[in-house]
Every structure is written in structure tokens, then in C-alpha cells.
Amino acid sequence: MNKDELLKIYSAYLPYGLLIETRTDEEIKTEGSYISKLTGVDHLGLHDEFANCWEFEVRPILYDLSYLTKEIEHGGEKFVPIVELLKIKYPNQKGRYATTEYSTFGYPFACFSVDAGKQIKVNTSYLLEEPFWIFQKITEWHFNAFNLPEDQFINKATLKQ
Predict the structure, then answer these.
(1) How many domains does the chain have?
(2) With CB atoms 3.0 to 4.6 Å apart as the test, which of 36, 98, 151, 158 could cross-link to 113 if both were Cys?
(3) Higher pLDDT pick, 12 / 161
(4) Residue 161, pLDDT score
């Protein structure tokens, strides 16, 4: 990707405190990892919380989209993103969330418990009706919303603390 494309991608994460890895693979082997929070983007490069300016040779720390159906941690809370999205779309079901289940084809859906042990099953395809707010949420939760190639980001779920 060229510098202009990366500028657009990284700037979308600015309001959400994206973490970036600022060392090359070789530097990580010898000096260890250096992670900081992205605070600004301009024509010179990326600015971090320590007032450093990096060219676009960094890797953002993001969740792979496959983690939409798995438990993640964001902002000190653990949750399953696809279920949180369904809760946002169906706010009258708050407090009734039971579980994430999967169809025979492997697609996830949320089950909301209702009176007398009955359940309401909500298919994730219902989320496709309103893509903008969903894109905002997965960007906020630091997902690879722009489909960066695997070598251009660090998978947050596999990052060693």
C-alpha cells in the first residue's frame, strides 16, 4: 500500500487509541518490542504519545476479523463482538442475552432468553442492513476493518503481553 492509502487507514483509528508497533522485525529480535499509542497522522508520518514521528513503517495492532465471533478484550471489558453488535441493534433484548450459538453451516447467531424458557434467535446477517455504525464499532474495537494483509498488522489476539 502507498503512503496515502495508509494515511487514510490509520487516521480512521485516531479517535480510538490505536496501538502501533514501531520496530522492525530485526530490531524486535535484538532490542525488543516498542509499542505506543497513535495520536496523530500527517504528511510526515505517524505521531505517537511520546511525540515521536514515524514514517509509515509501523504495524498497527489489530484483531483479525475472524475474532468477531470470539471473546476479545477492549477497554478492560471482555465480550464477543458479534453479540455486542446484536445487542446494540436490538436494545430491547438487553439483559436477556444467553449465548452465541452456531448454525449447522457454522454461522454464529445470538440467542436471547425470554419468558418460559423460550429463545429468540438473531442471525448475524441482520447486521448487514446498517453497515456504517458497524464499521465504526469494529474500528473502535481495533479490528482489521480495512483488510490489511497479515504482514502489515500485528494480530492483537496473539500478541504476548
Answers:
(1) 2
(2) 98
(3) 12
(4) 56
